[in-house]
């Protein structure tokens, strides 16, 4: 069923055994929501850029990258699960859709940029529900300085400015050590320098969180904004952290970050510099700030969505009534060669597009005698813009079943 070549962004790519990109995904690569005036993703991007005003702002880098850029240049191990066809979209063995904006770290650092933000669409094969979509937007931010005393002092000076600013803000920070046995400085780094980088990273991001959330969270002396730092692991930073913000009674995971691995900077020919990087997911934050209940809405071309927003303003989204859902169940025997759930999700996405709201595996069964395995899924259909009729849903479900039979050989 795979054609011998597929056109993406004006170029044609030969297919091979790796090809798993679908037309539903190809149709997204030209949308550029982060550049659409008034779109919540665009406003949020501009807000973060404002905050890092003296950084270079990159916004139109193609989503097509090599596995080298996406993984190897960042020291991902050969057997990292992210590389697999079940997790990432490949045009062919040599070309893929970036899974994160970190894929561009080496090229941007090698252009000599020391402070930069890069906003872009990223692609991951994943489950289907109100907060997961195979395309979303990230902002990569990075700051490096020369790893001598002058560079390190410049970082410290900036940290003093940020510390002063934050001391005047209604914010409480739950911290972890900058560097520890489980979250170590890199062997190439003077541990004191590492601490200074991690500290500047934390202050820079605490300040950004305050800018983004204090307004909507109503941070006051009595009820300050709460930000929490957690030790994390990424193949391309050490020490590494995750940041969470307490909002409406819940801790929300906001971003990942850390001190850039020296091997990344070596590859970019800036071996005598050091610094930090972070990766911020925009949809999750925009859903919270604008009260947007379903991630598909960002892709809606219904004027009732986009007309609610004005460039630069964060306002509360007013749902234009929730249209009824309609679900269908499908069960099947797994083929001999096995089956990944993400393959089922892409079949449904490709046929139903944004009319699918949720797909859940609801049952699994292994026949006690033959050992054959079966699975059952519930597919929930709902349009964001209108009521679906039964005939239409039946037709979609029939196509899903046919495609599961033909392509996945269930
Ligand atoms: N790229 C990481 C992700 O998508 C986030 C990250 C960026 C972590 C930069 C550390 C440094 O999860």
TrEMBL record:
One of its GO terms (cellular component) is mitochondrial matrix. It comes from Dentipellis fragilis. GO terms for biological process: phenylalanyl-tRNA aminoacylation. InterPro entries: aa-tRNA-synth_II, aa-tRNA-synth_II/BPL/LPL, Fdx_antiC-bd, Fdx_antiC-bd_sf, Phe-tRNA-synth_IIc_mito, Phenylalanyl-tRNA_Synthase. Residues 44-319 form the Aminoacyl-transfer RNA synthetases class-II family profile domain. Keywords: Aminoacyl-tRNA synthetase, ATP-binding, Ligase, Mitochondrion, Nucleotide-binding, Protein biosynthesis, Transit peptide. Residues 321-410 form the FDX-ACB domain. Coiled coil: none annotated. It comes from the Eukaryota. It is found in: Mitochondrion matrix. This is Phenylalanine--tRNA ligase, mitochondrial. SMART domains: FDX-ACB. It catalyses: tRNA(Phe) + L-phenylalanine + ATP = L-phenylalanyl-tRNA(Phe) + AMP + diphosphate + H(+). Is responsible for the charging of tRNA(Phe) with phenylalanine in mitochondrial translation. Belongs to the class-II aminoacyl-tRNA synthetase family. Gene3D superfamilies: Bira Bifunctional Protein, Domain 2, Ferrodoxin-fold anticodon-binding domain. One of its GO terms (molecular function) is ATP binding. Pfam families: FDX-ACB, tRNA-synt_2d. Its EC number is 6.1.1.20.
